[in-house]
Amino acid sequence: MSPGHTAITTPAVPGDPVVSCDDDCGIRDVLDRLGDKWSVLVVVQLAAGVHRFKELQRAVDGVSQRMLTLTVRRLERDGLVSRTVYPTVPPQVEYELTELGHSLTLLVKGLADWSLAHRPRIEAARREWDAKADMPS
Fold first, then answer.
1. pLDDT tens profile 15-66
2. How far apart are CA 97 and CA 110, in angstroms?
3. Pairwise CA distance, residues 71 & 137, whole Å
4. % helix / strand / coil in the chain, to the nearest 5?
5. Cα angle for residues 43, 100, 37 (degrees, 5° grid)
6. DSSP string, 108-134
7. What span, in angstroms and rounded, lies between the C-alpha atoms of 21 and 11?
8. 32 φ, ψ (degrees, to nearest 5)
9. Which of 28, 31, 74, 122 could form a disulfide with 35 if both were Cys (CB 3.0 to 4.6 A apart)?
10. What whole-number distance in Å separates Cα of residue 103 and Cα of residue 55?
11. Is 26 helix (H, G, I), strand (E, B) or coil?
12. Of all helices (H) and strands (E), which one includes residue 40?
């Protein structure tokens, strides 16, 4: 222990939460933004670099023009995406992740890695649950 380190560390007690958010820690706002159907997919696409609107729409399978417009506006409002309009006819618009948006990509990659690693277990648990649910009482 260093001379300046005086805090006592205690091991986690089973049942204690690993993460705590007693007061409003902002998690609801983040989940509202990233928990929607399209935001994470847009962030993933923009992590690869700058995209024009139509490129982004083609890359995010199934998103409508209206939903993509709303999604990038919300991400821009939250400071995760920047929008650049070039004075051409018609105007050319490009989207890219901000520094804050890029910092989110590590978390998204972690979630994607976890999902990929645990997909078989989740699918097995679903099959088991569905089989029990289908049994007559």
1. 666 666 666 677 777 777 778 889 999 999 999 999 999 999 999 999 999 9
2. 18
3. 45
4. 55, 10, 35
5. 30
6. HHHHHHHHHHHHHHHHHHHHHHHHHHH
7. 19
8. -60, -40
9. 31
10. 23
11. coil
12. helix 39-47
**Contact between residue 34 and residue 26 where contact means Cβ atoms under 8 Å apart:** no
Structure tokens at 114: 């976890």
Q: Which amino acid is at 120?
A: P
Model pTM?
Answer: 0.72
Asked if 95 and 56 count as a contact pair (C-beta separation under 8 A), the reply is: yes
φ/ψ of 136, rounded to 5, equals -70, 150
DSSP 37: S
Q: Which one-letter amino acid corresponds to residue 23?
A: D
Tokens 């890029």 identify what position? Answer: 102
Give the total residue count for the chain.
Answer: 137
